[in-house]
Write a structure and sequence with these properties.
Layout lengths: L5 H8 L3 H13 L3 E3 L11 E3 L1 H22 L4 H20 L9
Antiparallel strand pairs: 1-2
């Protein structure tokens, strides 16, 4: 997600803007994201994943895939499909309602 604002990241992660800003500060200090110092549009300071962050994502993606496979190994194909659909429904529900600390922002 190139050049995305912290407010948009917060919405997509279902957390408050303050929580996302704290997380982004930590990721920036670790060199995993790059945050603009000059607003690109209005007051928006876009954030991008750094090359180091991309490398980390690539390394852990295989581990996540392996974990998902282990988690669903005993399920039938139909059960895996049903699980994925249920998770999509949960995600949709989260997107339909703001989190308590976002509703006041």
């Amino acid at each position: 997600m190139p050049n995305i604002s912290s407010a948009e990241l917060a919405r997509r992660a279902y957390v408050s803007r303050q929580s996302m800003n704290m997380l982004l500060r930590t990721l920036d200090q670790r060199g995993l994201v790059q945050r603009a110092t000059i607003p690109a549009l209005g007051r928006v300071l876009p954030t991008t994943i750094s090359p180091t962050g991309r490398e980390l994502i690539e390394r852990v993606s295989e581990e996540v895939d392996s974990l998902e496979h282990r988690m669903t190994a005993a399920l039938t194909g139909a059960q895996v499909d049903a699980l994925r659909e249920a998770l999509r429904s949960c995600q949709t529900q989260l997107g339909a309602a703001s989190t308590p600390d976002q509703s006041t922002q």
